[in-house]
């Protein structure tokens, strides 16, 4: 087995090879794509399944207490610089390997059905395999240089997959926005890497932390410089994991195919930032200022993500802001020193959110033939509703994911989120208040999504005639007037005659949803209090990292755990009840008119503070508008000003000299005709002019 341990590089190699094969096939046999797409799918899935089995072996080895493996090969050898490449196998690596490969396999199986009729089917699997290989390479990297290479490859694959349907302007803009925003974070990451190399002389994680600790103890490090390098390094995870203020790319990234949202923007790529912080945790832990910054960035991100998700009408964007909020929880947990809780939530959230995104893809795939294929209709929850009747399996699996994210026991996210909530409260009452408030908002907006999508009556047939359904507000009040209501009533019978209804997705897509339901239900038990009862907590022992960590300080036994969990469960149920009150089956197509007549909806004054809050949330806190004003418009104005100066002053000066030379030459051409009498006349005239000028002066 030692030989297998020395060949962990095979894990990223298999999906990389499949990506090359698919790329060559699509390049050399473009006319045969339709006939060989199944073969390409088989190659992609088979190679990734092999990588998954190898990952599972290392996962088991780490569980059973095998030592950490670390191997290096010399890459660049110089008198002053030695760069090495290799791999590192430890508990954190094994977690991420099993996470990426299992979710990757499920998403690939799901994508075969979801993308089957797409013209870019093989290109999609080529990009998907390349991304998986890049992510696996990032996970096993033993030093900062190697991790930065794969970090950039992951960003490139994200750019390609977000802009997969690049002929759609919104998708093209979204991939550019994601690419540029991540370049800001990556530039900071590169500067931070170089800064720490300048301090310690090493890129290796373990050696870097060891040398930094020694230098810090001997007071040989400038604190300001060290903190600056750490902040720059932290800027990379801030962008990659969609933390405030570099979070703006994530909602727009939903322009990519839904399976990509499940794999990249829920379970793997956005988790890369959390992974890097966890990998560099021994170093960050020595810098209290950076840990504080990490804590508050996470807290603000969690609260903002939940606040923006409250009013989203786009199903996938609502889930995207939910992802942003949960990533904020993870960053908050790492910042306060709760290492185990943060990584535990990374695991539970990955499976739950992948289930939710694939469930949303099942919904979108089903209603597209009815409402249209543009995202403004097929992803608009206002045109959904009542889907539980037609898609029962999708509805049940989506409900399981919703309950998990809300923190309802015994679903997976309950066990991890509760630890973060209580650890936050122990760390700071104000942080605890933010964390608990975010938990309540999470329960509200997740059940808002579920109720608008699956409960009530189906509204998809009203997508053209009933435009007012695009304006169901957060308060459950359709924003239309009396005239529109009368018009709706008169047209209602006409629409009923040509009504269409969605159908349940095919067996392959449903199989993927059912498989993801299993970890959504049970994976939380690996870190729950049940193992405390038998004196052994797998996750705590496995991920025990720091004696200063807050791991398990808030409960001693099963009963104590649930006593501490009562506040979080209570606030989650409060959010669910409010969502039921505002978005229950009362929002339906058949009885909407009678409900308005009976004044069942809340009436709000346009000048009310609630309307202002709604507008703020729906406009994403005006952050995108602010960035557009400060960076885009101001930069365009600045460049136009520079262009004007360059055209009329710099070029004008040079061109002016040229024009003067040209006209001077033209004048001299007529003066210098070769006649001596003309030269004498010109000479005498100039002398007389100078004489008179001298006389007057």
From TrEMBL:
<keyword id="KW-0934">Plastid</keyword>
<dbReference type="InterPro" id="IPR003945">
    <property type="entry name" value="NU5C-like"/>
</dbReference>
<feature type="domain" description="NADH-Ubiquinone oxidoreductase (complex I) chain 5 N-terminal">
    <location>
        <begin position="75"/>
        <end position="125"/>
    </location>
</feature>
<keyword id="KW-1133">Transmembrane helix</keyword>
<comment type="subunit">
    <text>NDH is composed of at least 16 different subunits, 5 of which are encoded in the nucleus.</text>
</comment>
<comment type="function">
    <text>NDH shuttles electrons from NAD(P)H:plastoquinone, via FMN and iron-sulfur (Fe-S) centers, to quinones in the photosynthetic chain and possibly in a chloroplast respiratory chain. The immediate electron acceptor for the enzyme in this species is believed to be plastoquinone. Couples the redox reaction to proton translocation, and thus conserves the redox energy in a proton gradient.</text>
</comment>
<feature type="transmembrane region" description="Helical">
    <location>
        <begin position="432"/>
        <end position="451"/>
    </location>
</feature>
<keyword id="KW-0520">NAD</keyword>
<dbReference type="InterPro" id="IPR001516">
    <property type="entry name" value="Proton_antipo_N"/>
</dbReference>
<dbReference type="GO" id="GO:0008137">
    <property type="term" value="F:NADH dehydrogenase (ubiquinone) activity"/>
</dbReference>
<dbReference type="GO" id="GO:0015990">
    <property type="term" value="P:electron transport coupled proton transport"/>
</dbReference>
<dbReference type="InterPro" id="IPR002128">
    <property type="entry name" value="NADH_UbQ_OxRdtase_chlpt_su5_C"/>
</dbReference>
<dbReference type="InterPro" id="IPR001750">
    <property type="entry name" value="ND/Mrp_TM"/>
</dbReference>
<dbReference type="InterPro" id="IPR018393">
    <property type="entry name" value="NADHpl_OxRdtase_5_subgr"/>
</dbReference>
<dbReference type="Pfam" id="PF00361">
    <property type="entry name" value="Proton_antipo_M"/>
</dbReference>
<feature type="transmembrane region" description="Helical">
    <location>
        <begin position="41"/>
        <end position="60"/>
    </location>
</feature>
<dbReference type="Pfam" id="PF00662">
    <property type="entry name" value="Proton_antipo_N"/>
</dbReference>
<feature type="transmembrane region" description="Helical">
    <location>
        <begin position="287"/>
        <end position="306"/>
    </location>
</feature>
<feature type="transmembrane region" description="Helical">
    <location>
        <begin position="262"/>
        <end position="281"/>
    </location>
</feature>
<feature type="transmembrane region" description="Helical">
    <location>
        <begin position="676"/>
        <end position="696"/>
    </location>
</feature>
<keyword id="KW-0874">Quinone</keyword>
<dbReference type="GO" id="GO:0042773">
    <property type="term" value="P:ATP synthesis coupled electron transport"/>
</dbReference>
<keyword id="KW-0793">Thylakoid</keyword>
<comment type="similarity">
    <text>Belongs to the complex I subunit 5 family.</text>
</comment>
<feature type="transmembrane region" description="Helical">
    <location>
        <begin position="508"/>
        <end position="530"/>
    </location>
</feature>
<keyword id="KW-0813">Transport</keyword>
<feature type="domain" description="NADH:quinone oxidoreductase/Mrp antiporter transmembrane">
    <location>
        <begin position="141"/>
        <end position="441"/>
    </location>
</feature>
<feature type="transmembrane region" description="Helical">
    <location>
        <begin position="327"/>
        <end position="348"/>
    </location>
</feature>
<keyword id="KW-0150">Chloroplast</keyword>
<keyword id="KW-0472">Membrane</keyword>
<protein>
    <recommendedName>
        <fullName>NAD(P)H-quinone oxidoreductase subunit 5, chloroplastic</fullName>
        <ecNumber>7.1.1.-</ecNumber>
    </recommendedName>
</protein>
<keyword id="KW-1278">Translocase</keyword>
<feature type="transmembrane region" description="Helical">
    <location>
        <begin position="393"/>
        <end position="412"/>
    </location>
</feature>
<feature type="transmembrane region" description="Helical">
    <location>
        <begin position="565"/>
        <end position="584"/>
    </location>
</feature>
<feature type="domain" description="NADH:ubiquinone/plastoquinone oxidoreductase chloroplast chain 5 C-terminal">
    <location>
        <begin position="489"/>
        <end position="646"/>
    </location>
</feature>
<keyword id="KW-0812">Transmembrane</keyword>
<dbReference type="GO" id="GO:0048038">
    <property type="term" value="F:quinone binding"/>
</dbReference>
<feature type="transmembrane region" description="Helical">
    <location>
        <begin position="92"/>
        <end position="110"/>
    </location>
</feature>
<feature type="transmembrane region" description="Helical">
    <location>
        <begin position="122"/>
        <end position="141"/>
    </location>
</feature>
<dbReference type="Pfam" id="PF01010">
    <property type="entry name" value="Proton_antipo_C"/>
</dbReference>
<feature type="transmembrane region" description="Helical">
    <location>
        <begin position="187"/>
        <end position="205"/>
    </location>
</feature>
<keyword id="KW-0521">NADP</keyword>
